[in-house]
Amino acid sequence: MTAATRRWDDLSGPALVAATSDRSIAVVPIGAIEHHGPHLPLRTDTLIAEAVATAAVARVAAQGVDAWLLPTLAYAKSDEHYWAPGTLWMEGTTLLQQLIEIGRSIAQTPVRTVAFVNGHGGNVMLLGWVNRELRRRFGLRSFSMGSGAGVAGDGRDGRPDELGQGIHAGWGETSVVMHLAPHLVAEELPPRNVPERVAGLTHIGFNAKPVMFGWTSDDFGADGVIGDPTGANAEDGRLIFEAGVDFVAEALIEIDGFEFS
Prior knowledge:
This protein is an alpha/beta fold. The chain has seven helices and four strands, in the order αβαβαβαβααα. Helix 3 (92-106) packs parallel to helix 4.
């Protein structure tokens, strides 16, 4: 262990209590172990969330924010990929209870703030639920945010146009993994698989569309890809990753100064 460590689990219990205060922020990366087509590793979401959170914590700590990196949570709510061998997932209620118990444990320290950095879309609504539970039960300030890697190709500058539907194993995620761990990306990329019929709807859809719907990834094709990985490249991945680090670091700075009134 070095004096400069920002890893929660590098410290002993007494050292953690001595090093933290009610202004400290516990940063929890959360991802998933799930099918990402035939070309990306099962740990894609975990890899991205951990890398972004690690870089952001280092950056804000250098600027005086007392942020601490907790171990990454890999098993998550990935039932949209239940059909695919290799996916390791738990029921939403199981994950909810685990996150509540992690919050309860954090509340046993001087730390009063927790921030989840999430790399998997299937966790988003659950984390919103968790934020309120941790506030109500333990008085923690609780926040959740994406890792910034959920970017769809817009058809400009050589990027594929994913029609806002590049949500899984498409251009964005594939590019980021090419940047972070190129040895984990298969040489042959699967073909474009953008659900154009859904993209053409006004209200029903992903992301910003106001009407949600139940789906599993094989509803859109046997590969489980929703997007267009064919134009992915490491340089775009670097830019997406760096933008994600910028976003999370800026969010942590705001969280550091956040007050309810």
